[in-house]
Amino acid sequence: MTRHRTVERSEDVRMAAPLLHEAMPFIAHAAIRTRGTIGGSLAHADPAAELPAVMIALGARIRLESVRGSREVAAADFFTGLFSTALEAGELVTEIAIPVTQVTGIRTGTAFEEFSRRHGDFALAGVAARVAVDDSGRCTLARVALFGVGDRPMLASSCARMLKGQSPSAEGIRAAADAAARDDIDPTSDIHASSRYRRHLAGVLTRRALERAFARAHTEGTST
Ligand SMILES: Cc1cc2nc3c(=O)[nH]c(=O)nc-3n(C[C@H](O)[C@H](O)[C@H](O)COP(=O)(O)OP(=O)(O)OC[C@H]3O[C@@H](n4cnc5c(N)ncnc54)[C@H](O)[C@@H]3O)c2cc1C
């Protein structure tokens, strides 16, 4: 029942989950954010919504409760299709747990990008990225979740494979972003944008997000 505005203004969220903090102002307008809730957004599972992709990039776990009991589902398994989730009849989302990892010798960085026709509109395409590098600058983790480019938020696995173990260069990041746009998504055409245009946006936004996330990992080394 936590409203978007509460998450947006939370100092704890800003410190512990900067990716979530960065994404919040992209959700609709202030008036909507004072009413909408984080649990409602995840349960609603709009494929162009920001929060589902952020939760997948952060490796969040979602607690579902009913009179039958309680269970936890990884965000990556929660979204099952267009406006569809793993929620069963009678279940409520009651908790969203975001891991805050601090591993010696590993530095992480995150970044969020989206493109919409007007600020506050649902995105035509967007990306939430979390990367980690070791002391030698090699990528140990790349979780890139794209939204608005399929029936649900999508984890870019071929993009991640290309980055892992590499010391990311501008060319390497561009190639991984191109792979995400080519192999990891399945955008449809609608009145807002063609499938081809959405693929193009996905490539550009993924490249920008990865560049910023790696730069942040190198300079700031945030802990999520
Ligand atoms: C004009 C407008 C613009 C918007 N733009 C954006 C945008 O740009 N990006 C974006 O991400 N979202 C956007 N939204 C969506 C908005 O941010 C809310 O996330 C969304 O409307 C859900 O609202 P709510 O939390 O009040 O949930 P509700 O509308 O109350 O619920 C949505 C669905 O989820 C179910 N539900 C709610 N909470 C739970 C729970 N805890 N457990 C299980 N099921 C639950 C409800 O039964 C219902 O089926 C927009 C909405 C509006 C009206």
Gyration radius from CA atoms, angstroms? 17 Å
Q: Could you spell the SSE succession in H and E letters?
A: HHHHHHEEHEEEEEEEHHH
* Gap from first CA to last CA: 24 Å
User: What's the helix count?
Assistant: 10
- Which sheet architecture does the biggest sheet show? 4 strands, antiparallel
- Any idea what the shape is? globular
Return the average pLDDT rounded to an integer. Answer: 95
Strands, total number: 9
Structural class: alpha+beta
* Strand fraction: 15-25%
Bound molecules: flavin-adenine dinucleotide
- Report the helical percentage: 25-40%
Q: List segments where confidence is low: pLDDT < 50 over at least 5 consecutive residues.
A: none
Question: Could you give the order of strands across the largest sheet?
Answer: 6-7-8-9
Write up this protein.
By secondary structure, the protein is an alpha+beta fold. Helix content is 39%, strand content 24%. The chain has ten helices and nine strands. A four-stranded antiparallel sheet has the order 6-7-8-9. A three-stranded antiparallel sheet has the order 2-1-5. A hairpin with a 2-residue loop joins strand 1 and strand 2. Helix 8 runs antiparallel to helix 9 and helix 9 runs antiparallel to helix 10. It is globular, with a radius of gyration of 17 Å. The protein binds flavin-adenine dinucleotide (FAD). The site of flavin-adenine dinucleotide (FAD) has 18 residues, from helix 5, helix 6 and strand 5. Flavin-adenine dinucleotide binds next to helix 5, helix 6 and strand 5.
